[in-house]
Design goal:
- This protein is of the alpha+beta class and 49 residues long.
- Helices cover 33% and strands 33% of the residues.
- The chain is built from 2 helices and 2 strands.
- The protein has helices at residues 2-11, 43-48; strands spanning 17-24, 31-38.
- A two-stranded antiparallel sheet has the order 1-2.
- Mean pLDDT is 79; it is low at 1-5.
Length: 49
C-alpha cells in the first residue's frame, strides 16, 4: 500500500513530500505520529511548529 502511495505522489505534476513527526501527548505522555503531504519547501516550517 505504501508503495502505491509513494508512486502516485511521484507521478503527479507537482513534487510533494510526505512528512511525519512525533508529538507527545500532554495528558498521557504517549507519543503519536502526525503525517502530512506538502511541497518540499514547507517541510521545515511544518516540523518546527
Amino acid at each position: 500500500m505504501a508503495k502505491k502511495t509513494v508512486a502516485s505522489l511521484q507521478t503527479s505534476s507537482k513534487r510533494l513530500t510526505k512528512a511525519i513527526k512525533m508529538v507527545k501527548s500532554p495528558k498521557s505522555g504517549a507519543y503519536t505520529f502526525q503525517e502530512s503531504v506538502m511541497p518540499p519547501e514547507m517541510v521545515n516550517e511544518w516540523l518546527s511548529k
